[in-house]
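Budget justification aside, the reviewers requested a transparent look at the raw inputs and outputs of the sequence design task funded under Objective 1. We therefore reproduce one unedited record. The lines immediately below are the structure tokens for a 170-residue chain.
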């Protein structure tokens, strides 16, 4: 009887040991997977930029949507220059065009308004748009400034490369 009990105990001990080892391996795999996920998410902007550059180098073509043009209106030329210079100093854009007076019509508080405004064209990386929007909203004299972005679908590869060099990675 003692032999049977000892044999059973050994069997149970081996089974528990196998289950513990299996749980330990499972925990290790889960931990490594979580670490890889966190690392991938945190490195995504840099990896995306490298991927775009590799794609362009290997295929000789442009990755649509990597760059964008942001439209920003301003009440006068001085405000546009101040906002534009600050965007450039923060390295959020490769270049900015400030277009002379434009005629604008819009609804404000239920009525059609006519105004003369300055339009800015901000050329940037799509990954920087939210930073541009946040900055403009923080300094713009309008309560609700026009800040609209449009992805660049195609263009001069040399210009796009220059834009990548002018705007640092995130």
């Amino acid at each position: 009887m003692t032999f049977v009990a000892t044999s059973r105990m050994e069997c149970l001990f081996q089974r528990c040991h196998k289950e513990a080892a299996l749980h330990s391996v499972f925990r290790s795999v889960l931990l490594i997977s979580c670490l890889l996920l966190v690392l991938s998410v945190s490195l995504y902007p840099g990896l995306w930029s490298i991927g775009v550059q590799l794609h362009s180098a290997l295929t000789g073509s442009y990755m649509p949507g990597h760059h964008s043009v942001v439209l920003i209106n301003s009440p006068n030329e001085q405000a546009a220059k101040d906002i534009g210079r600050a965007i450039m100093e923060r390295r959020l854009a490769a270049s900015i065009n400030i277009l002379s007076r434009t005629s604008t019509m819009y609804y404000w508080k239920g009525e059609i308004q006519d105004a003369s405004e300055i339009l800015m064209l901000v050329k940037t990386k799509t990954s920087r748009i939210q930073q541009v929007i946040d900055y403009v909203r923080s300094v713009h004299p309008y309560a609700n400034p026009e800040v609209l972005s449009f992805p660049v679908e195609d263009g001069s590869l040399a210009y796009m490369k220059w834009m990548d060099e002018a705007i640092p990675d995130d």
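The CA atoms of residues 106 and 112 lie 6 Å apart. The two ends are 72 Å apart (CA to CA). Computational costs for records of this kind are itemized in the attached budget.
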